Amino acid sequence: MNDFDVPEGIDVLRVFCGPDGRHGNALGVVRDGRRYPDNDSRQALARKLGFSETVFVDDPERGTVDIRTPGQRLPFAGHPLVGAAWLLDLEVLELPVGDVTAHQDGEFTWITARPEWAPPRALERYASVAEVEALTGPPPGEGWLYVWAWEDEAAGRVRARAFPRRDDGIDEDEATGAAAMLLSAELGRALNITQGRGSQILTAPAPDGTMEVGGRVRLLVAS
Q1: Does the pTM exceed 0.90?
Q2: What is the rounded CA–CA span in Å between residue 55 and residue 58?
Q3: Which of 55, 51, 56, 42 lies closest to 24 in space, CA to CA?
Q4: What DSSP letter does each residue of 98-163 carry, written as one string?
Q5: Cα-based torsion angle of the residue sequence 155, 159, 164, 169 in order, rounded to the nearest 10 degrees
Q6: Are 158 and 183 spatial neighbours (Cβ–Cβ below 8 Å)?
Q7: Would you say 40 and 48 are in contact if contact means Cβ atoms under 8 Å apart?
Q8: Residue range 53-68, pLDDT digits in tens
Q9: Strand partners, 194
Q10: Average pLDDT, stretch 164-177?
Q11: Is the CB of residue 35 less than 8 Å from the CB of residue 9?
């Protein structure tokens, strides 16, 4: 059984699950975007579902997708693209910012994109994992915030939490591929990030300035 009550034609995934298959960020995938043909209908559905993101598939052959939060359209986001690539077995996803490539490697689905495509996020380093975990909600302030601390710097292991702070009902984002990309780019190294309650995100910078972001995906509700 699951806790999701979604309209027909929508898959629900969890993306960036932990090693035990738990956690991960919920994602709604509308396989046939024609069912929601305009901006208002798409935004209304994303708001009704209440996931941090919902992705509408406009062309499954070309991998053309449209990503929505409950309040806005996004030019790029990590967990919707990892989830859509896994669900639809896509090697390329078309976005307004450019083409994202994808591949499978064992239990992980990876996308390759450019960090500059990610929406801006404030990245704030904390002194310890305990400080990150002690937060009971979004820290004061405005704008998207990603707090992190080294769990094991030599091994590239990071503990992180994400707070959109945008008044759309999402107080904390469980697993955020775009922010992981930005942090990996800022630090200039591959990372193994534990975010939220126990989600896992892997990153790997490439010499050409692109970034790979990978994680596990589970199907919770099939359309």
Answers
A1: yes
A2: 9
A3: 51
A4: EEEEEEEETTEEEEEE-GGGSPP-EEEE-S-HHHHHH--SPPSSSS-EEEEEEEETTTTEEEEEEE
A5: 140
A6: yes
A7: no
A8: 999 999 999 999 999 9
A9: 159, 200
A10: 90
A11: yes
